[in-house]
Amino acid sequence: MKRVYIYISLIFVFIGAGSGLYGQAIAPASAAGDIFAEIIPVFSASETAQMNFGKFSPGPQGGEIILSPENYISVLGSVYAGSGLQNAASFYISGDVDAIYSISLPSGPILITNTRSAQTMSVENWLSTPAPGIGTGLLQNGFQVVNVGATLKVGTLKDNPVGIYKGSYKVTFDFN
After folding, report:
1. d(CA 138, CA 100)
2. Which residue, 150, 145, 132, is CA-closest to 86?
3. pLDDT digits (tens, 9 = 90+) for 64-88
């Protein structure tokens, strides 16, 4: 009987010793990591040509000068188109290749004022190429030119005396 007892004791000793090996904690390994981020301009916009309705003379009833984004001009009413150049506004948009962006034009009329008097004319019915809207612009090769036209409401010569009329407006280009 003693022999059996010894074998059983030895088995418990081996089991106890083995369980001690498995019960030891292994020290965790750790390492520090670095983080990097760079903020870049997604895109930029700059005016490359100012909107110019050219030279004209108001008639007895006034009228409209319609300047398309493609630089075509139409005259309605009693407005006499003069010599000189007119052109749509142009904006150069640049940024990431194939970035999609939105174009927002003025939602209402913008007044331009005679530099010598307080007389004004209204610029409205804004148009652009590409068309305004959400996601209508695309920066193929990282850039795009946006042309903007509008309609100038012209009064009579009494309403709009001779002189230069100036004003400003805002076009918004928003990354999507």
Report:
1. 5
2. 150
3. 999 999 999 999 999 998 887 899 9
Helices vs strands, H then E, count in the chain: 1, 11
First to last CA, the chain: 87
pLDDT tens digits, residue range 21-36? 455 778 888 899 889 8
Taking the C-alpha atoms of residue 39 and residue 144, their distance in angstroms, rounded to an integer, is: 22
Taken as a whole, the chain contains a residue count of 176
- Amino acid identity, residue 27? A
Calpha distance 47→49 (Å, rounded): 6
Query: pTM of the entire structure?
Result: 0.76
CA distances from 175 to 18, 51, 76, 136 (A): 65, 24, 37, 11
